[in-house]
Amino acid sequence: MMAALDIPKIRGRVQEQAVLGPTTWFRVGGAAEFLARPADAKDLAALLRELAHEMPVTVIGAASNLIIRDGGIAGVVIKLARGFNEISIEPDGVVAGAAALDVTVAEHAAAASLAGLEFLSGVPGTIGGAVAMNAGAYGGDVSQILQWAEIVTRSGDLVRLNMHDLGLSYRHSNLPPGAVVTRAKFSAVPGERQAIAARMAEIKASREATQPVRARTGGSTFANPPDMKAWELIDAAGCRGLMRGRAQVSELHCNFLLNLGEATAAELEGLGEEVREKVQRTSGVALHWEIKRIGIPA
Ligand SMILES: Cc1cc2nc3c(=O)[nH]c(=O)nc-3n(C[C@H](O)[C@H](O)[C@H](O)COP(=O)(O)OP(=O)(O)OC[C@H]3O[C@@H](n4cnc5c(N)ncnc54)[C@H](O)[C@@H]3O)c2cc1C
What we know:
Layout: E1 13-19, E2 31-37, H1 41-50, E3 57-60, E4 66-68, E5 73-79, E6 87-90, E7 93-97, H2 102-111, E8 114-115, H3 127-133, E9 136-137, E10 140-141, H4 142-145, E11 146-152, E12 158-162, H5 163-166, E13 180-187, E14 189-190, H6 193-210, E15 217-220, H7 230-236, E16 243-244, E17 247-249, E18 256-259, H8 265-283, E19 292-294
Parallel strand pairs: 2-5, 3-5, 4-19
Antiparallel strand pairs: 1-2, 6-7, 7-13, 8-14, 9-10, 11-12, 11-13, 15-18, 16-17, 17-18
């Protein structure tokens, strides 16, 4: 473990041995060695510039796509907070801070009668996570609307990247290692306010009918293989409802894992690996994790 002295002073907050589990969607995971919440992009840039090179850096958003392992995360975990929440409407789109929730950005666009961002209302993460994961739902994804994203690199430089630089593909981006997305601009077009609101209501109703949206979960566990649905392969392998400890494959949507209450990260990850093995044996298809598993096993 490194000494607290190794963290440069920032205007925002730094906590040592910060508990992370309760702030994640799965409600699992150990502590961050250091949790830094920079005040703004300049504060973040100074932190990354001055931070010892060997100090590992991990960025988290709303932790809606993460299993943080039970042993916690070594080094600095960066979580963007208030200084990264701003949303502004422009004639051709919306500029949003990386800590803004996707649903809030969709609501701002709707209130300004701008169409094209409705799908974001169905993704329970932040804008930073949406760019990093090329989040998508209901036929839309970030790659279809992103104009640019600003990042702070691991060495502390503020850089604006375009779509090409980001290399967005299915639930993937080519962000440089240790880079933190701070802001992004999304294209939107003038639309009819009621039609936009109706589309968002439709998305909400559809999600509530088909996904365990109020559960302790991480959304889709595995990426859909080309021309296949992960949930169908999992169902065919007999994994619907499968349990390990207090972790379960959702009965409602079997590409979702659930923490039924007191599950550990190891149980969730172990259950996911068991599903992968069973699918491999049944259908010969290797599923790839969409959920990021980070940190140290207990
Ligand atoms: C009920 C439920 C439903 C879901 N439905 C969908 C869906 O329909 N479509 C979909 O795409 N996803 C879905 N997800 C998954 C998840 O919401 C998305 O992947 C979301 O984009 C993750 O955002 P986040 O802020 O929670 O990121 P986190 O889970 O905190 O992090 C995910 C990844 O993004 C990186 N990251 C986060 N913030 C930043 C940043 N500022 N800069 C650089 N990297 C960053 C992290 O390092 C990590 O690698 C769902 C999840 C749940 C729980």
